[in-house]
Write a structure and sequence with these properties.
The protein is α+β, with helices and mostly antiparallel strands. It has helices at 60-68, 119-131, 136-145, 149-157, 171-189, 195-204, 209-212, 223-227, 229-244, 249-260, 277-301, and strands at residues 17-33, 36-45, 48-55, 75-85, 88-93, 99-103, 213-215, 219-221, 308-311, 315-318. Strands 1-2-3-5-4 form a 5-stranded mixed beta barrel. Strands 7-8 form a two-stranded antiparallel sheet. The chain has a two-stranded antiparallel ribbon with strand order 9-10. Helix 2 (119-131) packs parallel to helix 5, helix 5 runs antiparallel to helix 6 (195-204) and helix 6 (195-204) packs across helix 10. The longest helix is centred in the C-terminal third of the chain and has 25 residues, at 277-301.
Length: 320
């Protein structure tokens, strides 16, 4: 029997008594505090993430045994109390009135969100974009990439990130379509750009994420993702397919460069910075879609309803 989820992260309020199921994202080691032994966990569900602090007593062995019984990827039932600390919600578990225990029966839909948009319709729009490409070499490349049923199936499900933006099933498809649509608007404003090259770059720029991410009770990195990252993986994929299909070298170089420079700056993970107009337009469209979503999410999820809040990536966010 599937256990009831209980409270969701997004519904936590200061002072609430909490009972809910959460997926374990991170474990932080057992350590001493003033009154005994403690540890904390980063947990999540489909609405967000929160830290859980377990304050044990003097019996360090029992606290360590509980900690050792919990692993990343597990689903746990947490009974405790919610409190607001420095604009962030946390759950505190006191063994006198709370508990943490692993559970085996749960619904995965409680832990990973789905795109709110129609996946079939989004995929149809991507296919329309592909069919609109006139350049025969670029058209042939994209047709070959998207002819693989297993590839397309994962492209429809893959998230676009672990936390920052579109971190849900269907997120990569949604983000890719947004970037492609923005690039087409820029192509109308600047018709001197190579419209087909720009559109192709938008469609392939994040395909490395298909190798970077995997789904469990949360979105996780693969070993390839940890060691190489989606930019390298995507550039390698595009370059290899171009070579296999004997796509002209200039197209291969440009598309590979667009993937490599899509983050725009070296400190943001791009090994190259954009060196022609289409590459820069792609970077700006990619960055705009991700950043706008982050601003909106921070505003919508802030515990405050007015004033401003601080985000380490974006700085001050006005909430009015």
């Amino acid at each position: 029997m599937v256990m009831d989820k209980g409270v969701f992260v997004a519904d936590l309020s200061d002072g609430d008594q909490v009972r809910g199921l959460f997926a374990v994202r991170e474990r932080r080691q057992v350590r001493e505090y003033k009154f005994g032994t403690m540890f904390d966990l980063r947990v999540s569900d489909r609405t967000g993430r929160v830290d859980v602090y377990f304050f044990g007593g003097r019996d360090e062995r029992s606290v360590q045994e509980l900690f050792d019984s919990i692993h990343e990827g597990d689903v746990i039932e947490v009974t405790g109390s919610a409190s607001l600390y420095k604009d962030s919600m946390r759950i505190t578990v006191d063994p006198d009135g709370g508990a943490i225990q692993r559970v085996e029966s749960f619904s995965i839909d409680d832990f990973i969100a789905h795109s709110l948009k129609d996946v079939d319709r989004m995929m149809s729009r991507i296919n329309q974009h592909i069919r609109s490409i006139a350049d025969p070499d670029i058209s042939r490349l994209l047709a070959a990439i998207f002819s693989d049923e297993a590839f397309v199936s994962w492209f429809r499900e893959c998230p676009a990130s672990m936390e920052l933006h579109a971190n849900w099933i269907g997120g990569l498809l949604e983000h890719t379509l947004n970037v492609a649509d923005t690039c087409m608007a820029l192509a109308v404003q600047h018709p001197e750009m190579d419209r087909d090259l720009l559109l192709a770059g938008a469609i392939v720029h994040d395909l490395g994420k298909l190798q970077e991410y995997q789904l469990g009770t949360s979105i996780k990195l693969t070993d390839e993702g940890v060691l190489l990252g989606h930019i390298h993986l995507g550039a390698e994929m595009v370059s290899r397919r171009c070579e296999e299909l004997k796509v002209p070298e200039r197209i291969r170089w440009k598309l590979t460069h667009m993937v490599l420079s899509s983050h725009g700056r070296l400190e943001y993970g791009s090994p190259r910075i954009p060196q022609f107009a289409e590459a820069f337009a792609l970077h700006m469209a990619d960055d705009a879609d991700a950043k706008v979503e982050q601003y909106l999410r921070i505003k919508n999820e802030s515990a405050r309803q007015e004033g401003h809040t601080w985000n380490r990536r974006l700085g001050q966010i006005y909430l009015g």
